Amino acid sequence: MQDVELISPQLAILDEEPYYHAVGDEVPLFESAWRNRLPVLLKGPTGCGKTRFVEYMAWKLKRPLVTVACHDDLTAADLVGRYLIVGGQTVWMDGPLAAAVRAGAICYLDEVVEARKDTMVVIHPLADSRRVLPIEKRGELVHAPAGFMLVISYNPGYQSVLKELKQSTRQRFVAFEFDYPDAELEAAIVSRETGIGADVAAKLVKFAAMTRNLKGSGLDEGASTRLLVHAGKLIVDGVPPVAACRAAIAQAVTDEPEMLAAVHEMSSSIF
Amino acid sequence: MQDVELISPQLAILDEEPYYHAVGDEVPLFESAWRNRLPVLLKGPTGCGKTRFVEYMAWKLKRPLVTVACHDDLTAADLVGRYLIVGGQTVWMDGPLAAAVRAGAICYLDEVVEARKDTMVVIHPLADSRRVLPIEKRGELVHAPAGFMLVISYNPGYQSVLKELKQSTRQRFVAFEFDYPDAELEAAIVSRETGIGADVAAKLVKFAAMTRNLKGSGLDEGASTRLLVHAGKLIVDGVPPVAACRAAIAQAVTDEPEMLAAVHEMSSSIF
Amino acid sequence: MQDVELISPQLAILDEEPYYHAVGDEVPLFESAWRNRLPVLLKGPTGCGKTRFVEYMAWKLKRPLVTVACHDDLTAADLVGRYLIVGGQTVWMDGPLAAAVRAGAICYLDEVVEARKDTMVVIHPLADSRRVLPIEKRGELVHAPAGFMLVISYNPGYQSVLKELKQSTRQRFVAFEFDYPDAELEAAIVSRETGIGADVAAKLVKFAAMTRNLKGSGLDEGASTRLLVHAGKLIVDGVPPVAACRAAIAQAVTDEPEMLAAVHEMSSSIF
Amino acid sequence: MQDVELISPQLAILDEEPYYHAVGDEVPLFESAWRNRLPVLLKGPTGCGKTRFVEYMAWKLKRPLVTVACHDDLTAADLVGRYLIVGGQTVWMDGPLAAAVRAGAICYLDEVVEARKDTMVVIHPLADSRRVLPIEKRGELVHAPAGFMLVISYNPGYQSVLKELKQSTRQRFVAFEFDYPDAELEAAIVSRETGIGADVAAKLVKFAAMTRNLKGSGLDEGASTRLLVHAGKLIVDGVPPVAACRAAIAQAVTDEPEMLAAVHEMSSSIF
Amino acid sequence: MQDVELISPQLAILDEEPYYHAVGDEVPLFESAWRNRLPVLLKGPTGCGKTRFVEYMAWKLKRPLVTVACHDDLTAADLVGRYLIVGGQTVWMDGPLAAAVRAGAICYLDEVVEARKDTMVVIHPLADSRRVLPIEKRGELVHAPAGFMLVISYNPGYQSVLKELKQSTRQRFVAFEFDYPDAELEAAIVSRETGIGADVAAKLVKFAAMTRNLKGSGLDEGASTRLLVHAGKLIVDGVPPVAACRAAIAQAVTDEPEMLAAVHEMSSSIF
Amino acid sequence: MQDVELISPQLAILDEEPYYHAVGDEVPLFESAWRNRLPVLLKGPTGCGKTRFVEYMAWKLKRPLVTVACHDDLTAADLVGRYLIVGGQTVWMDGPLAAAVRAGAICYLDEVVEARKDTMVVIHPLADSRRVLPIEKRGELVHAPAGFMLVISYNPGYQSVLKELKQSTRQRFVAFEFDYPDAELEAAIVSRETGIGADVAAKLVKFAAMTRNLKGSGLDEGASTRLLVHAGKLIVDGVPPVAACRAAIAQAVTDEPEMLAAVHEMSSSIF
C-alpha cells in the first residue's frame, strides 16, 4: 500500500496572558488534575467565563489550546479526522482532537452534551488510564503525551433527558462547578473590559443580579457577565444607559412582552 | 501535500443607497454595535423591513453585504465552505460566511432559527470576543477583520420550542425589536414605492391595521408593509382596489373561508 | 481555478395556444402581476385547471414555461442545480429554477407545500424586490430578467400543520383562488375535450356536482373536471356510461365500499 | 460538454400468452383506457391475479412490460435513472420507468403506495394529458409514444393514513377493483396450474372461502388463490392434503396459535 | 458502453454432513417445496436449530448455501449487489442474493423481519411463479435456475407491529413451525455435541424445561438447546455444574436480579 | 478484476501484566470459555474493572487485544472494514473486528448495546458454532482461528427498551456479572494505584459505599472505584481531601444541588 500522507497542523501556544480572575480554588485544582493526567469537566451557565478560564490555564501550563464548539451534527469523524482526495492522492487530515493529542495540547470540547453520542464514546479511551485515541480508519492508536489534557464543559441548567452525560462518561472526569463572580469582582471585570466607570459598572451588576433572580420565574437564564460587558461598551460609546441595557441585556435574554417590560422597568429604576 | 487552491469570491459594496426610513434609534444603535464589534440580532414580523434595514446599514457603513436565507437543511458546511473536485484538482470553495469574514463584510443570516443547530454553533466563536471562524476541514482559523459584522434575525411570533435560540447563542448579540412603521410613515413608504396617491395609500394602511388587529384571533399574522406595496402596484396598473386587496392582501394572509370573507368585507368598507 | 462548464438548457416558448376558458378575472390579474414583477400563488383543488391556466398564460405572455412537480424529497439543489462529473471534468448543471431564471421564463412550482422547507427558502430572494437567485455552490447571484415570473400552487384543502406555507413565504405572493368552472362552462369543456354530446356532458357534470357535495361527508374530494374528461373518453370509445363512470370516476375518488355503492347509485340514477 | 452515453435497454414483448381468465369486463375496459392513453389503477388483495392480468394485457396489446415492485426506499432516481461512472466515463442509465416510456411499453408499478412520495409525483406529468417524463438530471423531457401506458396497483385493505394515495394522484387514473374469482373459476385455475383433480381443487377452494370469512375476525387476509396453487402442488407431489394445507395455507396466513388451530381444524374437516 | 466486469463468487457445496436430528416431517416437506420450486418460511424461537436444519437440507439437496443475517440497515443493495470502483474501473459485485440465484444455491435470509422493507420487496419476484431477480442498477433480469431456493426465517414471539411480515410477502411461502426437540431427543443432542454423560444431559434438559415454563412470566424466552450445549461444554471442561448453569444459562437469559435468583435456585435444586 | 490490496494491521500481544485482582471465579470461567471457543458477555456498572479484566485475560492467554468502544453510529462497516481509494488504487482496509478475527485476537466490544443493530447481527455467525465472519463486500468468509474470542459488555442498569440485547444475541454468550470489589480489596486497589495511605484509602471506600447506597434514591450510580483512584491521586498531589472528594467524586456523580450538598456532607463527616 502506498503511503497516505498525514496532515496534522502545528499548534501554537498562546503568547499573551488572557485576562482571568479566579473565583475559588479552580486554578490549583486544574493544575493538579493536569499533573495527574486526569481529564476535567467544567459545569456552569453561559457567559460566566468557562472558555476564558481554559484559555488562561492553557497559557499558564504552556500548552497549545484546541477549542471545539460541539453541536448536534458533530460526528466522531469531525473530531478524529478523515481521508480527503487532494490532487488525486488520498491524504489523511487529522481532526482537532487527533491534532490536539499528537501535539500534547489541551483539547476543550465546549457544550459537549450537544454532540452526538458517538463523540462521547470516542473520548472514553482518552479519558481513562489508557489515554489513547484509536483512529479506526487508519488502524492507528495514538498515545497521548504527558502534556495532553481533555477538558469538556456543559451547562447543567439546560441538560434535557435526551442530552445528558452518561455516568460511564462523567465518571471519567474531575469536575468543577462555575458560577457568576461575586458582585465586587464582577464590577471590576466589567470595568476593566469596557473602560466604564466603577459606579456604572456596579449599577450594571446590580441590574444583572435582578435578572438572575428571575431565573425559573419567567427567564430561562439571567444576564451573563458577557452581556454586562456589551452594555458597558455601548454606554462608553455614547448610547444612553437605558437604551444600552434594553438592547444589550433585556432583548438578549427574552422575547416575552411582559417579561421585557418588567426587565426594562428594572433598568429604568437603576439608571 | 499539494496546495489546494482557495476560491473566495470578491464581494462588492452596494453602490446605490437603499430606501430606508428609520422608525426609532435603530441606526445609531447598529452603528455603535458595529464600532464595538458586537454582533446584532433583529427580531420582528415578516415584511416589516428587517432585510431592507440591513441593506441600508451595509451601504451606510460601506461594507459588502452577504445575505443567507436560513432553512432546515442549511448545514455548517453550507456556510463555511467545502472541497470540490474541479478538473481533477481539489479546490476549497469558501461558503458565504467564510467569504464574508475574509472580506470584512456584513453577514446577514435571515430567519436563523430555521437553520440546523450546527449552524448556530459555528457562529459562536465569531460572536464573542474571539471573533474567529474555525474552518476545521482546512485546519484554518480565520480572524475577522475590524469591518466584519454578524447580523441574524428571526420572528419571535413563530418560534416553536424546537426552534428557539439557545441562551448560549442569544446572549452573544445586541438585540433590536422591529415592528411595522406608524400609520403616517407607512403610508409615505407605500406611496413612494408604488407611485400611488396619498389617499389610497392611507386607505391601504388603514386596511392593514384592521388585519393586524386580527392577529391571534383568526390570522397568524396581519398584512405586512410589503403586501400594501403589492396592492398599490396592482392598483396603479389599473386593477380595481377591491380586487387588488383581495389578491395581494386577503388571499395572501389566509385560506380560511370565513376569515377571507371577513377580510374582503373590510376592504370593501374602505374602498 | 479551471473553468467549470455551465450547462443550462435552452427553453422554448409553447407554439400552440393551450385550450383554456377563463372563469373570472384571473387573466388580467395575472398579467398585471407579471408586469409588476410580482410572483403569483394559485390555490385550488386537484384537476380544476391550474396547470392548464399557467400553460395558457405562458403562451399568452410569450414566455417559456418550466414546470416542477414538488415532492417530499425535492431539495434546493434539485431546483438550483448541482455539479456533475462528466468525462473527468466537473460541470455545473442548472436546475429547472436556475434555468428558468436565466431564460426569463415562467417557473411553475406545482404543489409547493409538498417540497422540503429549504425549497421554500431558496425562492425567497426571487419572490421579493431583490428578484435574485443565489447559487451558493457557485458563489453566483443570478438576477432575474424582466420576463421571469415565479408561480406556485397548492391545494388548501390538503394542507396539514406540518405542510403549510409560512407567512414569511406566502406574504411574498399575489394569490388567486381557483374552483371548478360553473356547470355550463364545465359541460362545454368536457364536450370539447372528448367529442362527447352536450347532453351526456351535462349529465357527467351533474354527476360530478353530486360527488362534490359529498366532500367532507365521506369523500376527501369530489370528482374533478379531469375525471369527467376521462369518463367522456371511455364513453366515446364505446364503454357503457355507467361502467365508464364507475371506472373513471367512482373508483378513482374512493376505496370505501359504502361510499362506492352510494356513488355508483348516483351515476345509475343519471344515466 | 462531452457527450454522455445513454444506456437504455431494449425491451422485448412477451412471446407466450400468459394464462389469464377474465372475471368481469376488465379486459375491454383496459383496452379502452389504453386506446385513450389513460393510465390505469388496479386495486385488490394480494395473490388475486393483478400481476398476471397485467402480463396478459401486455401480451394482448403486444407491448413490452416493465414491472417494478415498489418499496419504502424506492426513489424517483431509481425509476428515472442515474449517472454512473463506467471506465472513467459518465454514462446515463435509464431507470425502468424511463426505459418503458422510450420503448412505448406498459410500466407496472406494483404496490405503489409503498414507494416514497417523490415517486408518486414523478409520475404525475406522465399520468395526465401531457404524457411526458421530465428527467431533470439530464434536462430532458421524454414524450411518451402512443403505445406507452402506466399501470399502478395497491391493496386498499392495507392502506394506512401514512401510505394512502393522494387525490391529486388517484384522480389521474381509470381504476378497477379486483377480487378473488368465483368458486368454480378458482377451482378450474387451481386445477390447471397444478394438475390436481377437480374434486381436490374444489375442496381447496372451499377451504379458502372459510379462511376468507375470517378476514377481520382474527385473520388480516384470507388464503389467496396463489396459496391454493401451492397446496395443490405439494399434494400432487405426495404430501398428505392436511399437511399440505397446514404448511402452504394455515402457517402462511397466521402465527397466532388459536387461529392456527382453528384453521387446521377447518382443513381436517374438509379432507 | 464499455463492459463492466461482473464479480460473482463461485459457491461451494458443503462437503460434510451437518449433524441434524429431524423432529417431524420437516425434511420431506422441505424436499417437496424444493422440487416444486416454492420458497420456504421457517418460524421458531432462537437457538432451536433452524440454521442447522437449513445447513442439513443444503447438504442433502447438494446445493451451495448462502446465509444472510438480516438487520435494520440491510438494504436491497446489500442483497442484490453494487458497483465498485476498482483500479479506476467500475465493476459490479453481486450481493449474496444475486450470487445465490446465479449459482442455483439455497439462499437463507435469517431473521428476515429485521431487514428494511425494501429487502422484503426485492424478494417478491423471486418468491412467486416468475422466479426472477431484477437487478435494476444493471438493467438485468436474472432467471433463477431450477436448483435455486429461497428460505427465510423469523421468530413469531418477537414480532412487533412495526416488524411484521406483510401478507403480500408471507403468502408467497410454504411455512414450517419449529420448536425445541422433545426431552429425550434434546438430551441426546446435548450429549452428542458436548461429550457429557447422559445423566447430566438429562438434568440440563430438565433445567431448560423449567426456564421455558417461565416464558411470559418474567423471562422473554427460555433457555435454548444452544445454551445447554454451552453449559455442557463448560462442565466437561471442569467447571462445577451450578457455576456452569449460572454463566451459560441463567446470566444468558436474564439481567433481572429476582429472576436470576429464581433461576439459580432451580439449577441448584437439580445439581 | 485487478487485485485489491488487503490492509490488515499486525496486532501485538500486551507485554506487561496489567494489574487485576480477581473478585470471584471469573478467571477460570473465562479460560474455560476460551478453551471451548465460546464468546463471553460481561455485565456490570461503569468503572468496576471490566476493561481491566479483559486486558488481564488477554495478557494471561497471550492473545492480542482489540477494544472497540461502541456508539450510536458504529456500523457493521466500521467493524468489518471498507474499501478506500489510495493513490488511485482501491484497497480494502480491515475493520477492528476483521483484523481481530484474522489475528486470532480477543475482540472486546465495550458497551455493545450502544451500537446500531447491524453490529449485533454481524457478530452472530462469529458467536455460534460456525465462528465465521462474512465480509459481504469482499465476498469473503473469514474462519476464526482457535485463539480468537469475542467479548462484549454492557451495563444492565442503563439498558433501555430501545437498547436491549435481543435473546437471539445474548443466548450466544457465556455471561458473567461484575460488581465493585469488597471494601478491603477495593481499599488495597486504591492504595496500590495512587500511593495513598491505607487509612485514607479505607475512608474513600467508606465514602463510596455511602454514595452507592443512594443509587436509585437520587443518584443514577454510586462512585466507581475509578473515582476513588482520581480522588486519591489529587490528595497525594496535595489537594485537601474534602476538596478532592468534591471535584473527583461528588461533582462527577451528580449535578443536582441538594444531592451535591448531601454528598459533600458525607465526605466532610469522614475526613
Automatic annotation (TrEMBL), chains A, B, C, D, E, F:
Whether DNA-binding counts among this entry's keywords is no
> Where in the numbering of this chain does the CbbQ/NirQ/NorQ C-terminal domain appear?
186-268
Q: Enumerate the Gene3D superfamilies for this protein.
A: P-loop containing nucleotide triphosphate hydrolases
Gene Ontology molecular function, alphabetical: ATP binding; ATP hydrolysis activity
Q: Does the keyword ATP-binding belong to this entry?
A: yes
Query: What are the record keywords, sorted?
Result: ATP-binding, Nucleotide-binding
Segments forming domain ATPase dynein-related AAA: 39-173
Protein known as:
Nitric oxide reductase NorQ protein
